[in-house]
TrEMBL record:
PROSITE patterns: FAD_FR
Domain of life: Archaea
Organism expressing this protein natively: Methanolobus profundi
Listed cofactors: FAD
Protein name, entry field: Ferredoxin-NADP reductase
Annotated GO MF terms: 2 iron, 2 sulfur cluster binding; flavin adenine dinucleotide binding; metal ion binding; oxidoreductase activity
Positions of the FAD-binding FR-type domain: 1-99
UniProt key word Metal-binding: yes
Pfam families named among the record's database cross-references: FAD_binding_6, NAD_binding_1
GO BP: any one term: pyrimidine nucleotide biosynthetic process
Protein keywords: 2Fe-2S, FAD, Flavoprotein, Iron, Iron-sulfur, Metal-binding, Oxidoreductase
Length: 232
């Protein structure tokens, strides 16, 4: 489906991350984990890029995507957008989906790879699914963490949702984990990992190293969904 909609709301999530919301056309259906392409017009030059939908299929009023701002051309164009400015959206696309079909899942996100995980967690929470969710988020610093309040709110509503954060370049004040996601961490934080379906999302080097790790842990491809945020 293709539609042109004005931006209805912009949410600053971090110093370099913004969410953009649009009215959701009634006919626009998607599954948690999928992505759209967003095409912007820069004086006649049209550029489209893919973004995972960071809202949930249960949110009927709006769809949202969340962009890490890079200072490059497309990013600056988006950053300069205000409410009322329009974008051409097409989708949904992508095979990394969650519809409540699994009893236990493990979500591994690197940086802005949190976006599909937020959609999945919100969907499971709103639908009051029995799915047990363990989300491990890896970021560089405290300033790079996004959606922390939203996850805290979801945890209050959903006792089956657990979140573990690790920061690889945290400040001295950070009391939590500082390691990259590794097999020891998975074994410690998700002891029943072999029974779970894995969802992996992040920049390509992160996704590649997670795939190597999961293969070494004898997790078959049939138990892994992945989305590589190519373009970084
Ligand atoms: C399925 C999918 C889902 C995605 N979901 C998201 C999402 O939810 N959120 C999100 O933020 N992104 C997402 N992405 C990535 C997104 O589509 C963009 O590729 C990304 O945001 C970078 O776009 P950009 O225009 O800011 O940077 P680009 O200009 O495309 O830059 C991308 C890379 O090229 C390098 N580069 C570009 N120009 C120069 C230059 N002049 N000199 C040196 N290096 C340069 C940059 O360092 C960077 O590494 C997704 C990608 C895919 C495939």
């Amino acid at each position: 489906m293709k539609f042109e909609e004005p931006v209805t709301e912009i949410i600053q999530r971090a110093y370099n991350v913004k969410s953009f919301r649009f009215n959701r056309p009634e006919a626009f259906d998607f599954k948690a984990g999928q992505y759209i392409t967003v095409t912007l017009d820069n004086n006649g030059k049209k550029t489209g890029k893919p973004f995972t939908i960071s809202s949930s299929p249960t949110e009927r009023e709006h769809i949202e995507f969340t962009k890490k701002l890079t200072g490059h051309e497309y990013s600056n164009l988006l950053d300069a957008m205000g409410t009322g400015d329009t974008a051409l959206i097409s989708g949904p696309f992508g095979k990394m989906t969650f519809e409540g079909e699994y009893e236990k899942i493990a979500l591994l996100s690197g940086g802005i790879g949190i976006t599909p995980m937020i959609s999945i967690c919100k969907y499971a929470t709103d639908m009051k699914l029995s799915t047990d969710i363990m989300l491990i988020c890896s970021d560089k610093t405290e300033q790079d963490m996004v959606f922390t309040e939203e996850l805290e709110d979801m945890k209050k509503e959903n006792p089956r949702l657990s979140v573990f954060n690790t920061l690889t370049r945290a400040s001295e004040n950070w009391k939590g984990c500082r390691d990259r996601i590794c097999s020891n961490m998975i074994e410690r934080e998700i002891p029943d990992y072999a029974e779970r379906i894995f969802y992996v999302c992040g920049p390509p080097p992160m996704v590649d190293s997670m795939m190597d790790m999961l293969h070494e842990m004898k997790i078959p491809d049939s138990m892994i969904y992945k989305e590589s945020l190519t373009g970084y």
